[in-house]
Structures are given as structure tokens and as C-alpha cells.
Amino acid sequence: MLAPFDFYSPSRIVFGWGRRSEVGELAKSLGSIAWIVVGSRTLEQNGVITGVRRLLESAGVRTHVLTTITHEPSTHDVDDTVAQLEGLRSEGNFLLAIGGGSAIDLAKAVAGIVTQRDWSVWNYLEGVGRGLKLEIDPWPILAMPTTGGTGTEATKNAVISSYDPPFKKSLRDARLVPRIVLVDPELSVSVPPATTAWTGMDAITQLIEAYITKKATPPAQALCLEGLRLALPAVERAVQDGRDRMAREAMAQAALYSGMALANSGLGLAHGVAAALGVHCRIAHGLACAVMLPAALQVNREVAQGPLARLARYALDIRTDDDAQAATMLIAHVVELCRRLNVPQSLAELGVRREQLPELVAGSHGNSLSGNPRPIDDAELTQILERML
Ligand SMILES: [Zn+2]
Q: Of 136, 169, 187, which residue constitutes the final position of a domain?
């Protein structure tokens, strides 16, 4: 008997080197007015945004750059951006996000909130505020990811931070999955090496956590296997040579698969702690995931031995019938990859202090940690983080 499942994904995914040239016609199918959220100054400076706008205008779509965001979006970023649209709501509006996870998450939140009566994103975030649901359909979204990492182009949640009070929570609704995802891996050639490494490790962490989570679903697991097979040999090559087409394509595809997987299966310990490291220590999401992944694998090694072994056999072509041995080899491979990518091996190297542990432990509980293969209570989480100092 096979397990029942639900599976959410974008309606249309367009993948391929140079395919941003098709953005005009794709955009036209969503509406007549594109509000653009840009994720980096480089995309403005190297002419990518100008080129995309020209293609949209040629297809009869009016364009406005709504904002440029170069940090993980906060509640203020969402509310300020939505406020810019006051009085401008009309037929045919849609959001076009081009950039990394920050730009796409901001666009998703704006698309969701702008059509509601209450314009404070706070009230719609999980676990804080008034717990409101999106009553009216969001504006459609066209997502163009450029960093080969977060996979947020394929998920139904927007991760929004607050620093006072500190939290990182999701605005979650199945209608926030971008309608069209246009992945042109050529857009990632200008991403600097460090960002390539951290976002790449984020994708790898997502592929592993979404595979071994207790909430895993069969189609998502198939994507994890293939995504990890693509990503493990490619991430270091993409870091060393940003113009390596094969490596950039592999990472863009792996990131997309990781997003589709996590949207349907959830994550685990590494992502739970990464959220807390983001708000309490201002550590970038991908870097936090990379630092936490080896520890999360050790913690889950026994309970998730079978799934880890299957990942090892598929992604690394490891030929052994011994699950314990295969799982150990996958973990060793990840640890060595982190070392070669200069991922810090301790939380102290990230500036984390012992007195911050209680707030980190409290801030790690949420949707991600609830999917970890086995439960982890506060005492054990404190021990895990203490060992990492
Ligand atoms: Zn992530």
C-alpha cells in the first residue's frame, strides 16, 4: 500500500540557460502591470533589470520597479512596500521578483497582503499577531531566482523577520506559490563566491532535511535524491568558477528541487536553529544552515540511518548494503565539503556567545524543528549548541 500525499508546486516552471529572453510573453499571461522586486544592486548595474523591463514592455506589459532589497525581509519592509501600492490597485497587477530568496519572499508577502483589508503582515504571520488568514486571492507572482540556493521560488511561504521583538516567521498560504517560475541559471554567474557557497549549502541542507523529515512525501523525496546528486559535485565548482555553466545549471536546478521538496515535506533541526541564528545573531540563512548541517546529521544519524543511506547510494553512488556505513559516508562527505568551502565549524566563529543560548533554543522551535526525524527537547538542544560553541 502506498502512502497518500498532497503536492503543491508552481503552475509552470521554465528552466534553461538564457531563457530570460522569454520573460515578456510569460509575464503577459499573468497581467498587464508588473511590480518588480529586485534582489541585488548588481542586477541593476549589469543591465539585467533594464533588459527584463524592455522585454515586458515589448510584450505590452507596463513595468514599475517597486523596491530593491539586499537583506532578508522584515515586517517593516513588507508593510512599507505594500504602503507604496496605496491607491494603485487595479486590474492586471502582478509581482515579478528577480533575485535571491529575500526578493522572492518579499514579493510573496506583498502579493499576499496587498489584496487584504488589514495591511499589517504581522497579523498574518504564523504564531504571532492576530493569526489572520488571507481572505482574498493574492496577486500572481512570476519568480526569477538568481542565486541557486533558497528554492523559495517553489514554496508557499514567505519567511519574514522581526528584530524587535525578535522572530522569524512564515506567511503561509498555498496561493503564494509563484504562478510562473523562470529559472535562467545564467543570471547566477554574477553571484559572488561566498554567497554561492552559503546559498548552495542551503539547498543541500534543504534536500537532505526534506528527505529525512518525518513529514516526508514520496514525490518530494524523489526530487531530493536527484537534487542532491546534482548539487554535491557542483557547489564547489560554482564557488571556484562562477562562469562554470554546468555547475551553475546544476545548482539552479537543485535549488528549485529543494524548494519543491521543502514546500511539501518541511525541514528539520538545521533550519530550526538557522531561523534563531538569523534573528538573534543576524547570521545569513545559508551560512547558518551550512554551520548546522553536520551537527543535525549527527543528531539524526541513528533514527534516519535508512533514508541517509539511500541518499548516499543515489547521490554519491556509494555501493554498500550496510546502511550504517553508507550513512556515515554521506555525513563524512558533507563535513569535508563544509571544510573545503570554509564553513565555520563552531558557533563562536559566528560571534555567538554562551549567554545567547537560551534565546537561541527558544527561537529554534517552529515549523522546521517540528519535522525533525525525532523530537528534540530544550535540554538536548542546549547540549547540542553548547558542544558547537
Ligand atoms: Zn533554507
A: 187
